[in-house]
Amino acid sequence: MPQISHATLATTQISVINESTVLSDTDITTAVVALQQQVTNDFRPVWGTDAELKMVSQGASAPTGTWWLAILDDSDQAGTLGYHDLTPDGLPMGKVFAASDLKAGTSWTVTASHELLEMLVDPNINLTAFVQNANTTGTLYAYEVCDACEDDSFGYPINNVLVSDFVYPAWFESFRTKGSTQFDRMNQIQNALQLLTGGYIGVFNVTDGSGWQQTAEKNLSNLRHRGQVGSRRERRSILRDQWLTSLPQRKITNNAQHYRQHLQTILRRKEAA
Q1: Which residues are CB-contacts of 113 (< 8 A; sequence separation ≥ 6)?
Q2: pLDDT digits (tens, 9 = 90+) for 15-67
Q3: Where do the structural domains in the chain lie, given as residue ranges?
Q4: Cα torsion for 136, 142, 143, 148, to the nearest 10°?
Q5: CA separation for the pair 176, 115 (Å, rounded)
Q6: Cβ atoms of 252 and 19 closer than 8 Å
């Protein structure tokens, strides 16, 4: 598919911020190029939303007024972004826990693609599709566009960078029948609301009062599936007025440096033991 000119990009600006100790700026810059192509060439024609991604190097400040996609080590990166839900400007934020992915043996670039696309479709983490079972019963399905097909094995490469598969709007339309339309980018899903191996989706039964639950293709044991603090899955279950605004970028950078120093101290102690 031919490249789409940046002149036609939407006004949404997203800063991809490197606050990870396990990835270099070069690693993330390479991924950002692939993510930009996925959003503009693959995602926008289907979902009608676009963005311009800008890499923010370690120690640099993100421009005011931008959405954030923060690359962190894990949700225990206390004092940086792991426990925050919005940018300092109160704008949408997505988080990628790169070290957690490495521990789980999964691809951080697939996770980055996953978080980016879901943030673009549902930045406020409050959209749902309602399937009514009877006059007084029904189920809300979280409007998450990568969960059903999130496993690395269903992703696809862009310039040797693996990105996430994603569902089409038809996936949420329960009246759709097998073979009637395309349900995901890689055409691996055959029915509406179908979960691929390793996939899941958040559901909310409107009558039983149990809140948000995960329904999965099979039992999920991967670290990425546990709803880490700060993840979209965890935030969906928190009342919007209880979300936390992030620290200013300079404070985040300082805290990240302290975090890295703490990690080095732990490593030196282990080596000396």
Answers
A1: 35, 38, 146, 155, 163, 164
A2: 999 989 899 999 999 999 999 999 999 999 999 999 999 999 988 889 999 99
A3: 6-272
A4: -120
A5: 26
A6: yes
